[in-house]
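Hey all, quick one. A colleague (J.T.) asked me to put the 2-oxoglutaric acid job into the tracker so the inputs and the structure tokens live in one place instead of scattered across chat threads. No bug as far as I know, just bookkeeping. Sequence used:
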Amino acid sequence: MKPSAYLKSLPLAERVYREDPLLAQRLYSEELYRYLRDGVVILPGVLDHALLGAFDRDLSLFLDLRAAPAQLGQIEVDGRGEHKRAGTLANLGINDLRDALSGLRLNDLHSHFDSAASISLCEPVTSFLSELFGSPPALLQSLTFFKSSEQPLHQDFSYVNSHSHIAELAAAWIPLEDIHHDSGPLVYYPRSHFPDRYGFFDWGNGSVVADYATIDAYYSAYKEYLNRAISDGGLRPATYLPRRGDLLIWHGALVHGGSPIINPALTRKSFVCHYTSLASHPQVKRFRHQQGFGFDLFQESSPGSQATPPVPLFKPSLQRRIASKVKRLVKASFF
Ligand SMILES: O=C(O)CCC(=O)C(=O)O
């Protein structure tokens, strides 16, 4: 994927900002304008505490896994080498996730718990992202952390790239508790989200996205590249110390990472979600129909296999289903 593909896929709001920041300030909400300018926006106290409470109750299952339903063992885990090798929670052999090594993340809890799904697409997130993308957002993945990721600095677009418009990428950082300075908080560099201004990193053959087969070989060059971009741009780090209920949304090219843990006894419970626009989601297929375009949802299928039928976006309500059935019966008895 070449730099031109990144630049061509920038959301309209971002193009407007790049061309004419004052026009962007007039056209968009203050929050979106700040995001376009800084690559990050913090929305204090916007999250629903009842929803967070429901997620807490589900997460309490991970504090005594021997007593939890066995299906939880199938949840995918990632993070350090040992987490990657384990692959699933059951293989980690841990009873209480507070005892896990830093970096452990639980993948896609939104597909296991309604509470996580509801938080990932809650109104403060979807209304902000709809304005950014000019279309409804779609969730690409969610990551749940009990402790800091201690992840080195990076830009998400080089790693999260299964969607079709690579620059349509943003993420939400949702604290599940008040975050302590010594727990390894999120660190980021405001205004680092213009990779074309300091030159894209070359992951091989001019590609702006990392290839998992060769990623390790580029590790130190990428680190040097980011450090140079930071010092050349005079960028300064910010540490995010939110209270529960706050929300941070960052740009897919913002330089950020998980800072090192100072006090290992502290948790840093957080929920991180990555989004693209609905039209760019890997399970959405766009097709041309006469004068316009349509969108349909497909489940991922292995190459060569039959595409699985589209998944309906919404299940019709009971009343609607009864009304349709009655209509069909009436039609059948009259015609
Ligand atoms: O929360 C963190 O420590 C970092 C998360 C992160 O960098 C990411 O998910 O891209």
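Adding what we noticed when we looked at it: Residues 3-285 form a domain with the Jelly Rolls fold (CATH 2.60.120.620). The chain is about 30% helix and 20% strand.
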